[in-house]
Write a structure and sequence with these properties.
The protein is mostly beta strands. The chain has a single domain, classed as YVTN repeat-like/Quinoprotein amine dehydrogenase (Methylamine Dehydrogenase, Chain H). It contains two helices and 25 strands. The strands form six sheets. The protein has a five-stranded antiparallel β-sheet. A hairpin with a 7-residue loop joins strand 21 and strand 22. The longest helix is centred in the last third of the chain and has 8 residues. The radius of gyration is 18 Å and the shape is globular. The chain starts with a strand and ends with a strand. The relative contact order is 0.14.
């Protein structure tokens, strides 16, 4: 397999790791990350291919050399854990951070200063403390910003984050794991929940279930990502249950129809079993990773760092060109 790319992974309790040779060897980035850091978000800079943001339980970090060296930039609030990050494609100085306890923050200066945004989010839920697991900016309209909350549904801003509305028509499960926007006319917003993926083609006013249980062998869906050169192709990271023992990467096409979206050409790409390199063996999957961060199923432990006895829970993955 070609090794002309760098992989960075964020983990739960094992901090951030970097492989400069496509997964052949790994280095743990101990500075400046505190011991036992939880790095849940990795987001690439939209115009600087070697620049990467990391969101952790200790704040925001920045690397400008493919993850070889890092600097601590700031933290929205000392008590908050960053669970998701989004960078405005047309204005990379503007970032959105989703946190736990649940809140969304905006920075207009590259992450140095943050302001809390006016969302009314749940303070408690069935899992204890809610968290903003997804923050997404529409690539065609930077005023359209989305926040997905575990467990408090999908929230939408039409004015760049100034005001927000909870959109739930047809979204029967408020346990939001991931979100992605597939450009088109109309664009399609997809959101993943524990056992369903919902689609909206009317800016979140209504949602249609895609019936993934009929297609996926392991339908507990954690995260979704779009293939950048083909917006109809979607990848979903799935597990067998909330606290699972296995997982896989599903690939499918979403077909826009008059009554919403449906699935076709469903393919199991690979299993997250013993080696992260399995998930990157396909050039098609690598190109998807190049689009930004693509977390594996958060409950699937992956022995991926060259040490058979070391199993790490991966929260975020980013691939950068060398």
């Amino acid at each position: 397999m070609a090794t002309d790319y760098t992989i960075c992974i964020g983990t739960v309790g094992q901090g951030l790791w970097q492989s400069p040779d496509g997964g052949e060897s790994w280095v743990r980035m101990r500075t400046p990350f505190p011991l036992e850091s939880r790095v849940r978000a990795l987001t690439r800079h939209p115009t600087e291919p070697h620049t990467l943001f990391a969101g952790a339980d200790s704040g925001l970090y920045l690397s400008r050399d493919n993850g070889a060296a890092w600097a601590h930039v700031s933290a929205p609030e000392p008590r908050l854990n960053i669970w998701s990050l989004a960078v405005v494609p047309t204005d990379p100085e503007t970032l959105f951070a989703g946190t736990s306890p649940s809140a969304v923050y905006r920075s207009r200066d590259g992450g140095h200063q943050w302001e809390p945004l006016a969302l009314e989010l749940a303070e408690e839920c069935a899992i204890g403390t809610p968290r903003v697991t997804a923050t997404v900016v529409d690539p065609d309209d930077p005023r359209l910003v989305w926040a997905g909350v575990e467990i408090d549904g999908v929230h939408r801003s039409l004015d760049g984050g100034d005001t927000w509305t909870r959109v739930a028509g047809g979204l029967s499960d408020p346990d939001i794991h991931g979100m992605v926007i597939a450009p088109g006319d109309p664009s399609c917003v997809l959101t993943s929940t524990p056992r369903e993926i919902f689609a909206s083609t009317d800016v979140g006013e209504s949602w249609q279930p895609m019936q993934i249980a009929e297609h996926f062998p392991a339908p507990y869906c954690r995260w979704i990502a779009m293939k950048p050169d083909d917006p109809q192709v979607i990848f979903a990271a799935c597990g067998d249950s909330a606290i699972g023992s296995s997982g896989n990467l599903q690939k499918f096409q979403h077909i826009l129809e008059a009554n919403g979206a449906s699935l076709s050409n469903v393919v199991k790409v690979t299993s997250f079993v013993t080696d992260l390199r399995e998930a990157l063996a396909s050039a098609e999957v690598r190109r998807t990773y190049f689009a930004g961060a693509f977390p594996a199923s958060t409950q699937v432990q992956v022995a991926a760092l060259g040490t058979p006895d070391l199993k790490i829970e991966i929260e975020a993955i980013a691939v950068l060109p060398d």
